[in-house]
Design brief:
With about 260 residues, the chain is an alpha+beta fold. Helix content is about 35%, strand content about 30%. Helix 1 (about 1-10) crosses helix 3 and helix 10 packs across helix 11.
């Protein structure tokens, strides 16, 4: 297996002579590794692994499988399923930027949560980052320091909509959000639902409607939205965020 992997790794690295010099290995000896006639000492194996940026599994498993395993969602098992949506979230469907979102409170059905999060792109993937409001953390008797409040996640494309999977650090809590673009004057609203990963109880729902609003790229407006994070009443939504209230349909059962 090591010989097969080495032959595959060396294809894009120039001549064997040049590679042997860069590794500090005698060419004749390196040819023995390639043919499977000899096995490197532990220190030489470590040198080879460092050079090709692989680990010691290279002696037991195909190297193309090692690379795929590191890319969980894009690997051979999930790549054509989950990975197909994760790697293809166009800006036209879900732009990068700051979003203000609203949903009904899970713990108190008479209140609504207003939050803020940031969507970015890196390496072909779409990432989400935000902070739970201090008010929401206090109501759960949880610390309100930034590391505890922070959550991160990723976006995936599904048909005409977007799925967001987010978690707090160490996967303490997670949520599943589904959104699709809603008709609006500025084309900046997405409507769907969110679910929370908690056991079912008789008086506390685990799913509710969700509204996202893409904010203008104006720091004063973004900072203002950040200051307003927390719980508000339906009357507040009606006066200050009427489009959010309309899309949330507070007087219509979710199910």
């Amino acid at each position: 297996m090591l010989g097969d992997n080495l032959r595959l790794l060396t294809r894009s690295r120039g001549s064997v002579s040049q590679l042997s010099r860069e590794l500090g290995i005698n060419r004749t000896q390196f040819n023995r590794y390639l043919s499977g006639e000899s096995f490197p000492r532990p220190d030489v194996l470590q040198r080879i692994c460092s050079y090709f940026d692989v680990d010691a599994r290279v002696i037991l498993e195909p190297v193309d499988g090692l690379a795929a395993r590191d890319d969980l969602l894009g690997g051979p098992f999930l790549g054509d399923y989950v990975g197909a949506g994760v790697a293809n979230v166009p800006e036209t469907l879900f732009p990068s930027g700051f979003y203000r979102f609203t949903r009904r409170s899970f713990a108190n059905q008479s209140l609504f949560l207003v939050g803020l999060l940031h969507v970015t792109r890196n390496g072909g993937y779409t990432f989400v980052r935000g902070y739970e409001s201090r008010d929401a953390m206090r109501r759960q008797n949880l610390p309100t320091d930034p590391p505890t409040r922070e959550y991160r996640g990723y976006a995936s494309r599904h048909e005409d909509g977007i799925v967001l999977i987010t978690s707090r650090k160490n996967a303490m809590t997670s949520s599943f959000n589904y959104l699709s673009r809603a008709a609006s004057f500025n084309n900046n609203f997405w409507v769907g639902y969110t679910t929370r990963t908690v056991p079912e109880t008789a008086d506390s729902p685990r799913a509710t409607r969700l509204v996202y609003e893409l904010l203008d790229k104006s720091w004063p407006k973004i900072m203002e939205a950040g200051r307003l994070m927390g719980f508000v009443t339906e009357d507040y939504l009606a006066e200050h965020m009427p489009l959010h209230r309309r899309h949330l349909q507070p007087n219509t059962p979710f199910w």
